[in-house]
Amino acid sequence: MDESFWDNIKDNLITAITGCNWLDIDQDGDKEMIVSIYCYTVGASTPVHLREKGIMIYDLGETIELREIIFERDNKVDILEQYFIGER
């Protein structure tokens, strides 16, 4: 994302959590936490209207670590499709 685009939207970018689920994505016997998010821009001064569904995947152990963030348009794993939840 280029810096001028980010500068134009960062003050008006909202991220809402739309769900939380558990799934053993990598088949290692441990479930990962999947947090569904919906990102969007608000305000008349925002030049671009952004509407994106995504998921944040966390590994859980002695600590909680963010593994990756995937936006719906970039998803290549069919089993994850149901976790892309839009606005509520």
Instruction: Report strand order across the widest sheet.
Output: 1-2-3-4
Q: What share of residues are in beta strands?
A: 35-45%
Number of strands: 4
Task: Tell me the series of helices and strands, N- to C-terminal.
Answer: HEEEE
Output mean pLDDT: 88
As a whole number of angstroms, the C-alpha radius of gyration is 15 Å
**Uncertain runs:** none
For the termini, the CA-CA separation is: 27 Å
Number of helices: 1
Q: What's the helical proportion of residues? A: under 10%
Shape: elongated
Largest sheet: 4 strands, antiparallel
Class inferred from helices and paired strands: mainly beta
Task: Give a structural overview.
Helices cover 8% and strands 44% of the residues. With 88 residues, the chain is mainly β. The protein is elongated and about 50 Å long. The chain contains one helix and four strands, in the order H-E-E-E-E. The chain has one helix at 3-9, and strands spanning 13-23, 32-41, 51-60, 64-71. The protein starts with a helix and ends in a 17-residue tail after the last strand. A hairpin with an 8-residue loop joins strand 1 and strand 2 (32-41). Strands 1-2-3-4 form a four-stranded antiparallel beta sheet, with no helix packed on it.
Any chance you could write out the topology, listing elements then pairs?
Elements: H1 3-9, E1 13-23, E2 32-41, E3 51-60, E4 64-71
Antiparallel strand pairs: 1-2, 2-3, 3-4
Features:
4-stranded antiparallel sheet, 4 strands, 88 residues, mainly beta
Overview in brief:
The protein is mainly beta. Helix content is 8%, strand content 44%. The radius of gyration is 15 Å and the shape is elongated.
